[in-house]
Automatic annotation (TrEMBL):
Record flagged with keyword Signal: yes
Peptidase MA-like domain boundaries: 294-471
Region (Disordered): 84-104
Highest rank taxon of the organism: Bacteria
Signal peptide (UniProt feature, chain positions): 1-34
Keyword set, alphabetical order: Signal, TPR repeat
The protein's name: Tetratricopeptide repeat protein
InterPro entries: Peptidase_MA-like_dom (IPR039568), TPR-like_helical_dom_sf (IPR011990), TPR_rpt (IPR019734)
Extent of the TPR repeats: 136-169, 204-237
Gene3D superfamilies: Tetratricopeptide repeat domain
Length: 483
């Protein structure tokens, strides 16, 4: 990040999507050794392989190839930690169940996975043999394989069949519930998580998965109880962190009132949120909801929870950076900042945060943060006009944050770097929308929801991967805003 960018690009008055909606790909690490690219801005990229070509560094992650300017690279280290396909480590996600494979699972995996793909003929043959538990284990192996590869839609289908065949296996139930949570289907996940606990009540993993399912269904008190039971059975730093987060929420919201509208459930502290302000917020949200539903052609299928906080309670609960002004982590968390009416700025923030709920629903919780933030800003009415010229100069000289470096949460970014990340996210989405139409932005979200990686979704829709988009954005900004 150049000094010029730091000085000119201002921090937007909206929030980041904290932890990308709590639940994303819960995947097991692959065995392949990885290369590590250290960027000059402090970010790190872990790739399957890296090679230098002229002024660019190319690297591969799974089936996708990316490229960045060599001038932005500080160092390249061969080997190192294994790659986790599709995982975003900054998110709060359920930990995988303990590695206690079903009987004969290793042999079955070798049977049903041939040349890097599930052999459906072998699955059908195993099913014809009439051994129900063996067939369930085979479908589980196929689902686990597809989950590892990030093919979540197929993984869900295989795991659903495994559950149908053997609903008495807590391991199958846990993984199916985890997949449903990963793909934004929390109401569907809950009964399977509850069944897993009934089958194996003294399992830290089943209690942990149940905690996530309850939390995402807005049953925070019960989630706390499940996580406490999980920790009694086995310590876990991640589970402990989620427990403490949920306990902070309960403490902050004790005694809060509740008010509902057609699509929202609002919680508030009565003395800090006057009735007129509450009505104004719900009215604004309902207007934005109708407009966004028309633009996306779809909408969240559950009531959206909105929580109004004092400033202190907001930061106590979310632990968000000071530069955020609101937050959507599955619930819209809004600090009131002493307001007594819905100003145009507050309405804009509400629209931005609500857009995240639509994006999350459309992508089943799998959209990368740069796409989330770019679309949310565009729905808010922002454009690249304020920073397009400076950004064009940055791309021309190789001073930009690669798309691959903006897939996970922006929470770790400082004030200046977060401003650049927001600006780039908006510019990329603006470019795609102007060149191909917003309908293609929606199609990208739909393909991601079906299990495609972001780059695969881009290539299938706009025929460009990350490298192509990064190469095209600079000239686009230059043509639009000048040198």
């Amino acid at each position: 990040m150049s000094g010029l960018e730091s000085r000119i690009v201002r921090v937007p008055t909206i929030s980041i999507l904290c932890a990308a909606m709590l639940c994303a790909a819960m995947l097991w690490p692959l065995a392949a050794a990885a290369d590590t690219i250290k960027l000059k801005n402090g970010r790190t990229i872990v790739a399957d392989s890296v090679r230098e070509r002229g002024s660019r560094v190319e690297y591969e992650i799974g089936d996708n190839t990316y490229a960045i300017q060599k001038s932005s690279v500080a160092s390249i280290t061969a080997g190192g930690a294994p790659v986790v396909s599709g995982a975003r480590t900054e998110e709060e996600v359920p930990e995988p169940p303990a590695s206690e494979p079903l009987d004969r699972l290793p042999d079955l995996t070798n049977l049903v996975v041939v040349n890097g793909a599930v052999d459906t003929d072998t699955l059908a043959l195993i099913e014809k043999q009439g051994d129900v538990q063996r067939t369930a284990a085979a479908y589980y192996a196929a689902g686990r394989f597809e989950h590892l590869r990030g093919n979540l839609a197929r993984a869900v289908d295989y795991m659903k069949e495994a559950v149908r065949l053997d609903a008495g296996s807590s391991l199958i139930l846990e993984h199916y519930a985890s997949l449903l949570l990963t793909t934004g289907r929390a109401p569907e996940a809950l009964p399977y998580a509850e069944q897993a606990v009934r089958v194996t009540p003294k399992s830290a993993d089943t209690q942990n998965i149940l905690g996530y399912a309850l939390y995402q269904n807005d049953r925070t008190k019960e989630a706390v109880a499940a996580w406490q039971r999980s920790l009694e059975l086995r310590p876990s730093e991640k589970t402990q962190a989620m427990l403490e987060r949920a306990q902070r929420e309960l403490a902050a919201e004790e005694g809060y009132g509740e008010q509902e509208s057609n699509h929202f459930t609002m919680r508030y502290e009565g003395t800090k949120a006057p009735a007129a302000l509450r009505r104004g917020i719900l009215d604004a949200l309902e207007r934005h909801y109708s407009d966004l539903a028309a633009q996306f052609g779809d909408a969240p299928h559950q009531s959206v929870v909105v929580i109004l906080y004092t400033d202190q309670a907001y930061f106590d609960v979310t632990q968000a950076p000071a530069w955020t002004s609101a937050l959507n982590d599955g619930k819209l968390r809004i600090p009131l900042r002493g307001m007594d009416r819905v100003s145009s700025e507050l309405s804009s923030v509400l629209r931005h945060e609500l857009a995240h709920s639509f994006i999350n629903a459309m992508s089943r919780g799998r959209a990368p943060v740069w796409l989330h933030e770019g679309i949310a800003q565009m729905m808010q009415g922002k454009t690249s006009a304020a920073f397009g010229r400076v950004m064009a100069q940055g791309f021309a000289t190789g001073h930009f944050i690669p798309l691959n470096g903006m897939e996970g949460s922006f929470m770790s970014f400082g004030k200046d770097e977060s401003a650049v990340a927001y600006a780039e996210s908006l510019a990329f989405v603006e470019y795609i929308s102007e060149k191909y139409g917003f309908s293609d932005v929606v199609r990208i979200l739909q393909r991601i929801a079906e299990g495609a990686s972001t780059e695969a979704a881009l290539r299938a829709t706009v025929h460009d991967g990350y490298s192509g988009l990064e190469g095209e954005l600079g000239p686009y900004l230059k043509s639009k805003y000048g040198d």
